[in-house]
User: Fold this.
Amino acid sequence: MEQLCGGYGLIEGPVWDDELGLIFSDVIFGGVFALDVAGNVSQIFEHRKGIGGMARHEAGGLVVSGRNIAFKPFGGGDTVILRDRDEAAGNVGYNDITTDDAGRIYAGSLGSSPIFEDGLPLKAGNLYLIDLDGSSRQVAEDVRLTNGLGFSPDGKTLYHSDSQRNTVFCYQVDYDGSLGAKQPFVKIEKGIPDGLVVSEDGRVWVALADGGHGVGVYNADGSESDFIEIPQEMCTSVCFGGADLKSLYIVTGSEGTGSDRGGAVYRIATSVAGLPVAPARVKLSGS
Assistant:
């Protein structure tokens, strides 16, 4: 395992791009960055804080979460809001997102902010689907703290971390993107489940935050397959990358480092490739 870069507040939303490399956000201090294959870091977007999830869009840009779900084009241009928050209805923003093979977007909402607001317990949010025509609808409810999202290799199961319940849940996925009843997939005993990815063999790789010190790897039946330890306690998310998708990128927050800029990016080689995540293909305003 190697540390590739550091000096961030809370790294989230890692996504792999064949041209730019690993793209990630800093929730606390703001901005979206790209770490290329030579180890150079550049800033793609400035300022925006609170981005917990990102996805590539086929139009050439990123879909980002935070106070809303929005498309931001590479190289500048207007931001397009795909789904806004609704504070009056208990939706203060969004955290992790993912896409299915069709390019639809799944986004978990926050009933209260775990980062920028004081007070517990956190209010529950929901899970939303943004369809290809730009319409959106709720597909699951009562998620106490929404985090990682990822699909099984056949696309028929969606995995979803609920950090406040210390559980990764799963849903059966219908042809139109609707979800079946929420079922427990694995209960986390050390740390809390945060971001997650799925490998081509169907295993689920879960970042274990809040003292988890690494990544838990679980078979499709929920049994533990492996554990990857990292030097930091606040493991926030994971992403497969590289030309063959056999590099696991692990990102962290500052908790336990003694610094408010202790967040870092690590990389470790894996024997199995990650599943490629399709770009979003939802309609943009005016397109």
